[in-house]
Design a protein that fits this description.
Serine Threonine Protein Phosphatase 5, Tetratricopeptide repeat, G-patch domain and ankyrin repeats 1, GPANK1, Ankyrin_rpt-contain_sf, Ankyrin_rpt, elongated, mainly alpha, 201 residues
């Protein structure tokens, strides 16, 4: 077994810290005022960073809103001019198809007013609303097309969504309901109502 022994240190030993500690303590004395300023500066820097971050976020939101508004206005211009490729590009970018300007005009209104039937059809096919959507004067796309004398656009607006297949299908469903066994109870209800109600002659 190995024996461990203790060797006393010499005055200038590599492991001696006594003299160095004394000199470090003398040079590292900081006044309370310096400490206070240090922490105030630290807090001030933190607040400044938060303020800058908030301003940057607010600025980004403003920039984003402005970009959306500009794209919306471009959509209205393309609709007014009948620029189908421009409309398709903006729609593919996700521009709000129901964007309204300061007069509450939409792309469908612009296209209707200027007689752009193809633009009206394209906008309607992509979900643009026009029923119940009015400008500051209370006029909708139908009113604007009528005022401008664009009967073809008016017909497009009124006929959009009506397809012969839908009408035939709903007609078939109506016939199916009438031709089932439920017709007898329906006829009995109708007959009983007629006999109980006296119509003055």
């Amino acid at each position: 077994m190995a024996a461990l022994g203790f060797i006393p240190a010499i005055d200038h030993d590599a492991f001696s810290f006594g003299t160095e500690q004394k000199s470090t303590n003398k040079s590292s004395k900081i006044s309370g005022e310096e400490v206070r300023r240090f922490y105030e500066d630290l807090i001030k820097d933190d607040k400044t960073q938060k303020d800058q971050s908030l301003r940057a976020t607010h600025g980004n939101n403003r920039d984003r809103e402005r970009a959306q508004e500009l794209q919306g206005l471009r959509l209205l211009r393309c609709a007014h001019q009948g620029d189908i490729p421009g409309l398709k590009e903006l729609i593919s970018k996700g521009v709000d198809i129901n964007f309204q300007d300061s007069y509450l005009w939409t792309a469908v209104m612009c296209a209707s007013w200027s007689g752009q039937k193809a633009a009206v059809r394209l906008l309607l096919m992509h979900g643009a609303a026009w029923v119940g959507v009015v400008d500051t004067r209370g006029k909708d796309a139908q009113d604007l097309a009528s005022e401008a004398g664009h009967d073809d656009v008016l017909k497009e607006l009124l006929s959009f969504g009506k397809s012969p297949e839908r009408e035939t299908h709903s007609h078939y469903r109506l016939e199916h309901v009438i031709t089932t066994e439920e017709i007898t109870p329906l006829a009995q209800i109708t007959h009983s109502r007629r006999t109980k109600t006296k119509i003055p002659m």
